[in-house]
């Protein structure tokens, strides 16, 4: 053991990172009786030897705890190499800026499906040379991206029992993962409703186009149904909108803009002329947008579409005036 450990340096914190990342592969190989590739075997061997080396050196008082923490990368040095050597970036290339659109989004891990051999088993004779025997090797891999409808219907069949004496029924409960997406009487889950709203107000996909697309994919979903479900989402988050509206009234700075909009079924309405008793017919539709910057630096973005031009502008001016009067 001493000869094996002699001359080896313990892993640092970064060196242990591949071991942790490949832990899932080791677990998968153990569950499906697969073989590890030479790189994984060497990495695990180095980790075991490193742990044995640390135990050996600590038992013989060959290293202090402070030195061990520095060797493992737990405790960093007080001085940087670049500051001591007075050198700049070794490569001379500036660091590539990160894409701000990638922040807050995590990649989806693929679902692992294991396909076992049907014609051969471990220890069988080789069908090619008829002399050797086959053994476990590194498995093959295929990453397949499949397409499907974003709305998948699921029929949950609940087992029921009935007493032959009193006639009472006993129904199996739904699992927790199903109830987290909606109540037992809810046909469209919270995830489906949220996705409909995202398609409409983030991707710009109209209700009728969502219905046509789902019909092509084999899911019967009408435009009126999508509208009803999105309306439920709007009713649920309307208190949040009201809260943001009240917070925007105390903003320190405003960015305001108005633009024309079009609503197909909007008819002319009679509006009162400002500073007059007369009325006139108005048919113009406007969208007013405002970015309210709060005192702590956060931005609140609001917009409103109606037949009143500068509706949010008037709101911001009134809110600023009331704030100055306090």
> How many strands, what sense, and barrel or not for the largest sheet?
3 strands, antiparallel
Structural classification: alpha+beta
What Rg is obtained from the alpha carbons, in whole angstroms?
33 Å
Please provide the count of β strands.
7
Task: Give the distance, in angstroms, between the N- and C-terminal Cα atoms.
Answer: 79 Å
| Share of residues in helices | 25-40%
Overall, the morphology is: extended
Element order: H for helix, E for strand: HHHHHHEEHHHHEEEEEH
Note poorly predicted spans. 1-5
Number of helices: 11
The strand order across the widest sheet is 3-6-7
Descriptive key words:
about 325 residues, three-stranded antiparallel sheet, two-stranded antiparallel ribbon, 7 strands
What is the structure about, briefly put?
By secondary structure, this protein is of the alpha+beta class. 37% of the residues lie in helices and 12% in strands.
Structural features, described:
A hairpin with a 6-residue loop joins strand 1 and strand 2. By secondary structure, the chain is α+β, with helices and mostly antiparallel strands. The N and C termini lie far apart (79 Å). The chain is built from eleven helices and seven strands. Helix 8 crosses helix 10 and helix 9 crosses helix 10. The strands form three sheets. It has a three-stranded antiparallel β-sheet with strand order 3-6-7, with helices on one face. A two-stranded antiparallel ribbon has the order 1-2. A two-stranded antiparallel sheet has the order 4-5. The N terminus is likely disordered.
